[in-house]
Structure to design on (604 residues):
């Protein structure tokens, strides 16, 4: 195992300090691979020389001044996602082909400077939540090899949990990007359907498939998602990311939980106890727990495999199966061939029922901002899955199968461990386009659990990530006064879909003034040549369109300019005309607007 963490904050800090280089990191990963040789996470592992050539190309691009937000970050890709000149097998050797083009999402990560280590194992044709249906071997849980890793994205989750990759891509149609994350104590981000292109992905259910991200922290998952997303005109299911219909509160939010009678742990009291601990942590992170009616979600989940959507899997690989009967896992074949039990009329009836159920589910969203469920209600041994494969798999989908059918985003977050030493994660679910807000809430829950990252010995990095959780085209805005979270003008940000990234300070080059006769009260931040101090700010991410609309509302003497943060980063932010500070009270010594307001409240 590496003696340092590959999370983005730690790795990026080591690169900046010069204590690590991408060349050294790659060599260390390959030196550590034999320690995990008995866990078949890889289907195609790139030769060391190949990855070192990637390093050379990335170093040359960096030397030429190219911005590389994922400079030197090692990652892996599930082997149902194309990489040019590398075989794609979908865990079926007879199906293998060598694509001439890299999948859209993977190419965006390579363009950002990431280093591809290899392609990972999976349940064949991404059909399963167990991680045991592969001719390349069944991946094992990183904490106890008698237990399953979860699937279908088994190898990707294990590689990240083992500390062999900073992040890995999976796919998620029914929960494949979440269940393996929960079983291996890592983060699994299942994006809003369509905002990450699935061009170059072997389809499972093409109308529902998502490319997912496994990472060590919520901030890392969101940062990778931000680099990976983007509208792909060649993907007929692609959609533009959008401002959500309703902003998700970040500091105080309503967290829906299935009513006690609807929570299902399949007789596993250890899983139930761990979930109750995580709910307590959510309360500490600002949640008000609200019981909701989970029945319409559960019925929607049953539609996925007990309905005609299984025919989409047959549309993808049915012709191949018909001519390669002996090359397909018998259980996988049985599931996909069940498509023949459904006809076109059944399909329309199921679509009608889905619309009815969505109405009922939408009604539940009137009572909650986030839905929290166990990532899985239990965990199984390999022997248990072998004895009852379909029943075990069905149980693992109880909290996952409805998410894509209802056009939701989801984030699997490590929670408190079970009493037997196995992980027990929590999944946060929200309406479409709330991916980044989920990551902000998930990060607080992750830290509250106090668990290590994956199976590594490393604790989570500081709460303020060194890399902001912003998408590639987002604009980062520093706010200093009435727009801070919870203050009177914060709604001008949240109603435009802005996402809180972090609290930090400016460089020691500013003075803060309480401007007179402003409603609501506002401060003015002024850059000075000498005598400046750090001032507390919050960083928010806005889309270009939302940023433009916001700036149009900023009244004089305030203006949006460029200010410098304590770590040297330039960002857009609130500044004040110098003339407006004449005669205004200098409040710099308070350190920020919140502290000043608190002091005013304490005055007799």
């Amino acid at each position: 195992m590496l003696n340092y963490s590959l999370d983005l904050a730690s790795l990026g800090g080591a690169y900046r300090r010069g204590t690590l280089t991408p060349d050294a990191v790659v060599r260390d990963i390959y030196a550590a691979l034999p320690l995990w040789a008995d866990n078949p996470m890889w289907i195609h592992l790139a030769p060391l020389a190949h990855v070192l050539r990637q390093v050379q190309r990335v170093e040359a691009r960096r030397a030429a001044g190219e911005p590389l937000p994922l400079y030197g970050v090692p990652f892996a890709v599930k082997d149902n996602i194309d990489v040019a000149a590398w075989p794609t097998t979908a865990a079926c050797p007879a199906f293998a082909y060598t694509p001439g083009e890299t999948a859209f999402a993977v190419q965006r990560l390579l363009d950002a400077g990431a280093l591809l280590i290899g392609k990972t194992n999976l349940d064949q044709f991404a059909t399963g939540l167990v991680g045991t249906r592969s001719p390349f071997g069944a991946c094992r849980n990183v904490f106890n090899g008698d237990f399953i890793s979860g699937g279908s994205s088994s190898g990707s989750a294990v590689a990240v949990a083992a500390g062999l990759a900073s992040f890995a891509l999976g796919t998620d149609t029914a929960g494949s990007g979440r269940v393996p994350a929960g079983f291996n104590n890592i983060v699994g981000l299942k994006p809003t359907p369509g905002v990450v292109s699935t061009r170059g992905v072997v389809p499972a259910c093409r109308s529902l498939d998502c490319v997912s991200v496994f990472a060590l922290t919520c901030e890392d998952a969101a940062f990778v998602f931000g680099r990976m997303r983007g509208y792909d005109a060649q993907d007929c299911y692609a959609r533009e990311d959008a401002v959500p219909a309703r902003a998700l509160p970040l500091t105080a939010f309503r967290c829906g939980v299935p009513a006690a009678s609807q929570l299902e742990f399949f007789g596993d009291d250890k899983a139930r106890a761990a979930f109750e601990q995580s709910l307590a942590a959510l309360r500490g992170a600002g949640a008000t727990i609200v019981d909701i009616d989970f029945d319409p979600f559960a019925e929607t989940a049953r539609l996925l495999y007990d309905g005609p959507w299984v025919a989409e899997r047959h549309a993808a690989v049915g012709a191949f199966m018909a001519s390669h009967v002996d090359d397909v896992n018998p259980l996988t074949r049985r599931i996909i061939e069940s498509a023949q039990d459904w006809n076109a009329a059944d399909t329309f009836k199921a679509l009608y029922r889905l619309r009815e159920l969505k109405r009922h589910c939408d009604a539940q969203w009137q009572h909650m901002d986030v839905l929290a469920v166990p990532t899985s209600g239990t965990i199984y041994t390999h022997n248990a899955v072998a004895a009852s494969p379909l029943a075990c798999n069905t149980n693992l989908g109880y909290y996952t199968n409805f998410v894509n059918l209802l056009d939701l985003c989801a984030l699997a977050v490590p929670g408190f461990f079970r009493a037997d030493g196995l992980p027990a994660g929590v999944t946060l679910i929200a309406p479409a386009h709330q991916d980044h807000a989920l990551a902000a809430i998930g990060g607080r829950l992750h830290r509250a659990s106090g668990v290590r990252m994956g199976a590594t010995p490393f604790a989570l990095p500081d709460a303020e990530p060194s890399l902001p959780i912003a998408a590639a085209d987002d604009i980062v805005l520093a706010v200093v006064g009435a727009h801070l979270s919870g203050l009177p003008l914060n709604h001008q940000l949240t109603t435009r879909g802005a996402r809180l990234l972090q609290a930090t300070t400016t460089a020691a080059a500013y003075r803060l003034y309480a401007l007179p006769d402003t409603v609501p009260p506002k401060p003015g931040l002024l850059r000075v040549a000498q005598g400046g101090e750090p001032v507390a700010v919050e960083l928010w991410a806005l889309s270009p369109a939302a940023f433009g609309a916001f700036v149009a509302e900023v009244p004089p003497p305030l203006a949006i300019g460029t200010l410098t943060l304590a770590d040297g980063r330039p960002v857009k932010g609130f500044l004040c005309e110098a003339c407006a500070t004449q005669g205004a009270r200098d409040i710099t010594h308070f350190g920020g607007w919140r502290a000043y307001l608190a002091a005013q409240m304490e005055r007799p």
Notes: Residues 8-449 form a domain with the Amidase signature (AS) enzymes fold (CATH 3.90.1300.10). The two ends are 59 Å apart (CA to CA). Residues 344-364 form the longest helix (21 residues).
